[in-house]
Specification:
By secondary structure, this protein is mostly helical. It has helices at 6-64, 69-98. It is built from two helices and no strands. Helix 1 packs antiparallel against helix 2.
């Protein structure tokens, strides 16, 4: 049997390399799709968290204007904590949208 032609010897590794490149491209596309879905979920969750915190902030502001000094201090503490939580949710959403 004659030895294989040099072109055939090159064709097999090139075909294998092309197959690997195609598989890697598919995996990359799938990963990007999963990343996009995850980013969208984080943005929605962040929005929902901020929405859930709004009533707590309103009540804290009502406590801050209360005549009782203890209630006023409690309102300030609650408002500060809720505002911090809302800011963390907002920052997470902004970072996900940027990156």
């Amino acid at each position: 049997m004659p030895p294989p032609a040099p072109v055939l010897l090159l064709a097999v590794p090139l075909a294998a390399a092309l197959a690997v490149a195609v598989l890697l491209a598919w995996r990359l596309r799938a990963q990007r799709a999963r990343d996009a879905a995850l980013r969208a979920s984080i943005v929605r969750i962040s929005h929902d968290i901020r929405g859930a915190l709004s009533p707590a902030l309103l009540m804290a502001e009502r406590l801050e204007s209360h005549a009782d000094p203890q209630a006023c201090r409690a309102g300030e503490l609650i408002a500060k904590s809720v505002e911090r939580a809302a800011e963390l949710a907002r920052q997470a959403s902004v970072e996900v949208k940027q990156g």
